[in-house]
Write a structure and sequence with these properties.
It contains 12 helices and 11 strands. It has about 280 residues and is of the alpha/beta class.
């Protein structure tokens, strides 16, 4: 089959399966199959796909048509201009989480040799992005999942940052010490089980549930994170974490004994990042 015809057929197939952005997905999976850039697809429409290429493309399309996220099929996702390995054991990094990085950077750059903890690191995207941007920072990344930490370590290594990020298999900030960090950063689970029907089916079905859902209200993990962060931070240290509009008011209530509490909205004007400073005393 010609490349052009394979792409047209794939778009129709994904459209029929109600896959969002069918052309983008069809292109992405064909780029993955042929190990090429997007421009190649349109520069060589008459290229003949081999039987092996056609078979692998059909397999990828079948997985996508059944709801498996394209990132889990290709094993990759871009975040902060960097390519990250992903698998079903970690949450797929999302553009909204870049707002966490944007919030942390000016705070960290105001501190000499900042010590930072990324809690629930998953793919390691936050820790690795911060290591890239903050050359003098000492960065620690935690996760309760051994499998997630394997992915995070691989991502640090592929960006030559394995000596900059220290990984710990612990629950939140346990065993990391008191009054030790300048910043605690996290993209914790914050979706309530009551909101499950509002979450995309492919997220509910294929992404790690413990990385998405926190419990009945969505605040359960954050309720544990805030006091642990307060203990782990130096006086004047900062806590920065991702949230949603649903829990924004609840988060503010939980941060009542912190100073400079702020909620930053994303590009859709949805509350996305909470930040607060541990009171100096």
């Amino acid at each position: 089959m010609l490349l052009r015809d394979a792409l047209t057929s794939a778009v129709d197939r994904l459209t029929a399966a109600s896959v969002p952005s069918p052309r983008m997905n069809a292109e992405l999976l064909l780029m993955f199959t042929l190990n090429c850039e997007r421009a190649y697809l349109y520069a060589h429409p008459e290229r003949q796909l081999s039987s092996d290429e056609q078979s692998r493309y059909d397999q990828a399309l079948d997985q996508r048509a059944h709801g498996i996220p394209a990132q889990y099929i290709t094993g990759h996702q871009e975040f902060w201009g960097m390519d990250f390995i992903v698998s079903p054991v970690v949450l797929i990094p999302r553009p909204e989480t870049e707002h966490v990085i944007e919030t942390v950077l000016p705070l960290a750059r105001a501190i000499t040799n900042p010590r930072i903890a990324d809690v629930g690191t998953g793919s390691g995207c936050i820790a690795v992005a911060l290591a890239k941007e903050l050359l003098q920072a000492e960065i620690h990344a935690t996760d309760i999942s051994f499998d997630a930490l394997e992915i995070a370590r691989a991502n640090a290594a592929r960006h030559q940052l394995q000596n900059r990020v220290h990984f710990h298999q612990v629950d939140l900030l346990q065993e990391l010490g008191s009054n030790r960090f300048d910043l605690v950063v996290s993209n914790p689970p914050y979706v309530g089980e009551s909101e499950e029907d509002q979450v995309q089916l492919e997220v509910r079905k294929f992404e790690p549930r413990d990385a998405v859902f926190a419990g009945p209200t969505g605040l359960e993990v954050i309720q544990r994170l805030i006091p642990q962060a307060h203990d782990a931070l130096k006086p004047g240290g900062w806590l920065v974490f991702e949230i949603s509009g649903t829990i924004a008011d609840g988060v503010k209530d939980l941060l009542h004994d912190w100073s400079k509490v702020r909620v930053t909205e994303d590009l859709q004007k949805i509350p996305r990042v909470a930040s607060a400073q541990k009171i100096l005393y």
